[in-house]
Design a protein that fits this description.
Helix content is 42%, strand content 16%. The chain contains ten helices and eight strands. 26% of the residues are buried.
Length: 256
């Protein structure tokens, strides 16, 4: 059995904690955090402690905090013999220095407090500096996920960047669409089947072939009409920037 300690009480920590409780091959022996109220969530069967109290032994210490806090939190573990990993997509494992046994355990998913996740489908990207530590992370990740990938820091950072485009920016587009609907008293719910179908296309088509719309067709009259409809300069700027990007990608094709 692999003994795990989690440092952090945010969304990632909570989803990891719930996933680890589904297998008898992993034992969460401790959860540490600064917020006593947040720690209440973790008091199912192990000891939840305030930060800087006694940190016990674990095979793996998972630092699930904001990127800016990783180095300072890792300093609490400088004398521990277990493997220390963080869950960030963009921070190199060198941020855990001077810890010798270090790595990353990066679950690539968007985590929200009120929404449950089927963790088996969540890709987990692992990195370590020794074969033994890498195998330990592989065993741990395989207990909760069916998609485990070995990935170095540069690959992980590139994946994180791609994820920002695929998830964070896309969600912001949903927000802008919601605003257009709200301003014009149109139900946003009408767009939900379209959103689901667009995402569903990624199961069978590359994004290049899935693209549709006026910019793909080089429909200048519709593009101008949309620009005239938009009520703020920031929205017009975003629409123009994205349309020009799509026009550039498809400028040498006759496909519609």
């Amino acid at each position: 059995m692999i003994k795990v300690a989690i440092l952090g009480t945010g969304n990632v920590a909570k989803h990891l904690y719930d996933a680890f409780l589904t297998t008898d091959q992993l034992e969460v022996v401790q959860v540490l955090g600064r917020d006593s109220l947040a720690l209440e969530y973790f008091k199912k069967k192990e000891t939840a402690l305030l930060e800087k109290t006694n940190i016990g032994h674990a095979d793996v210490y998972i630092i699930a905090v904001s990127d800016d806090s990783i180095s300072s939190v890792s300093s609490l573990l400088h004398n521990k013999k277990g493997l220390v990993v963080h869950t960030s997509g963009s921070v190199p494992i060198e941020a855990l220095s001077p810890i010798e046994n270090r790595g990353s355990f990066y679950p690539l998913q968007t985590f929200s407090k009120a929404r449950k996740i089927d963790f088996v489908s969540v890709p987990v990207c692992i990195e370590a500096e020794s074969k033994e530590d890498l195998e330990l992370l592989r065993q741990m990740a395989s207990q909760v996920s069916g998609r485990v990938y070995e990935m170095d820091t540069m690959q992980r950072k590139s994946l994180h960047l791609a994820a920002v485009f695929a998830n964070n920016f896309t969600n912001h587009m949903y927000y802008l669409a919601h605003e257009v609907c709200r301003e014009n008293r149109v139900p946003f719910e009408i767009l939900r089947p379209l959103i689901l179908e667009t995402a569903g296309k990624m199961e069978t088509l590359p994004p290049y072939l899935a693209q549709t719309g006026p910019a793909k067709r080089n429909d200048r009259s519709t593009l101008k009409m949309h620009m005239d409809q938009l009520q703020t300069s920031s929205h017009r700027g975003i629409y123009q920037l994205l349309s020009e990007s799509i026009l550039h990608v498809y400028e040498n094709t006759d496909e519609t």
